[in-house]
Amino acid sequence: MITRALHDSGLHLLGDNHELIQAADDNPEGFWENKAIVACNDELLESTGGAWDDPPSTPPVAADDARVAHVVESARGALDGLRPHDRWGFKDPRLCLTAPFWLDLEPDLRFVLCVRHPLEVALSLNRRNQNSYSLALALWEQYYATFLTSVPHERVLVTHYDSFFTDPESEMARVCEFAGLDPGAAPVRSDLRHHSIGVALIDAGLSPRIRMLYQDLCAAAGVTPAPDPEPNQGRVRRLVLDGIVADRHAEQRQAAIDRLTQRESKLRDEHRAHEQQLQARVRELQDRVSQVANEPPARLTEALRSLRALADGIAEDAARIDGRLDQISTGVDTVAGRVDHLTQRVEVVADVTQGGPWRRRVRRLSRRAIASADFRIRRAGRRGLAEIERVALPRATVVARRLPARTQPFVRAGRAVVVHGPRGALPEIEEASRALPTPVQQKLRALRSSRQQARRA
């Protein structure tokens, strides 16, 4: 909570390629601890024969301590990522044991020492790590005692956790003044305070050393600790303390149950919403399937109309072409008659002129006349075909492009019949017949077989 408040007031907690430790169930607002710094502190404690819950008998005393020389490079790298900022810092409870090492690397470091009631810390460690109360209280004492004996007092500001719940603005201003920051709002959430103790230290049976250390820390933080009760008021022993712990655990379990119930209700609402969306999607797909099922007959009807219009247009063009072919045939017959007449005259002249230059001239003229007649016949044929291609085929092609893909084989067969005749269009007709529905193909094969049998008979 306090580290986040300092961060919101302008204290940089991360350098290049640094990350914060992720939040956890017991600390949903986050730990606000630099992963690189925490990793170095774990390595420092392990190298000196201890761990966070088993402090070494002799913690690292400086950067040139031979036991921790291999950690110096990574520690300097973590600091180098923070130094470019005007106001920077890092948070880790292990600093109570490793502060001399970091002071040796950065002599200008200052420390904000956060104090909390020893019994609250013991309850928190028992709940989170299943530590015994005696171990938790021993850790509390060793952490604070080691820190106070290894760091100069002028570089330390002591703040009490309870002060942020009684007068957060004043305490925030006091801490930010020490850190050289403009104070921001303190992110105090009473609902996340898992433990608060109303039991005196002497009633809980704590040692005089812990009671005296806690009183000194409270005095440094400007907080007056609760006075010890009179001896004749009795003692609250471990049984009473365990009862308090049980009550706290019951409250926490009930709070967890309430959170799970709310989560279950939210998930049920999301499930119902997703189910409604799914049902709407299913109805939409069903409507679409119905539309698609009704579309083929309509498309087929439209295709049949287009084919019928195409057939009518082709019939008109065929009638026009037949008339034109009749005219061409008549012209060809006329030209052929003229050629025959000219040939007869040429033969008569050839018989009259036996030899000589006249005969050669007559032959030359006759060859020219025959070539001219043949040219006219060929030109007339070409004109007829050009008329067919100019009038009928373009029109059929334009109409055919508008037809569905399934009707294209029939269009190609019709065009081949017009251009090449029925016999020349047999391949296209066979391809079109394969595009017909299977029952129609079966009927056509039966009809063809019966015709063949009739012919043989």
How would you sum up this structure in a few lines?
Helix content is 67%, strand content 2%. The protein has 457 residues and is mostly helical.
Question: What is the topology?
Answer:
Layout: H1 2-8, H2 35-47, H3 72-80, H4 95-105, E1 111-115, H5 118-129, H6 133-150, E2 156-160, H7 163-166, H8 168-179, H9 208-221, H10 238-352, H11 356-401, H12 408-424, H13 426-434, H14 438-456
Parallel strand pairs: 1-2
Helix pairs in contact: 4-6, 5-6, 10-11, 11-12, 12-13
Keywords:
457 residues, two-stranded parallel sheet, mainly alpha
Given as residue ranges, the uncertain stretches (5+ residues, pLDDT < 50) are: 231-237
Number of helices: 14
Mean pLDDT: 75
Q: How many β strands by DSSP?
A: 2
Give the biggest beta sheet: 2 strands, parallel
Computed CA radius of gyration, to the nearest angstrom: 54 Å
Question: Helix/strand/pairing class, anyone?
Answer: mainly alpha
Strand order of the largest sheet: 1-2
- Choose one word for the global shape: elongated
Order of helices and strands: HHHHEHHEHHHHHHHH
Helix content: 55-70%
Amino- and carboxy-terminal Cα gap? 109 Å
Strand fraction equals under 5%
Describe the structure in your own words.
With 457 residues, the chain is mainly alpha-helical. It contains 14 helices and 2 strands. It has helices spanning 2-8, 35-47, 72-80, 95-105, 118-129, 133-150, 163-166, 168-179, 208-221, 238-352, 356-401, 408-424, 426-434, 438-456, and strands spanning 111-115, 156-160. The chain is elongated and about 155 Å long. The relative contact order is 0.06. Residues 231-237 have low confidence and may be disordered.
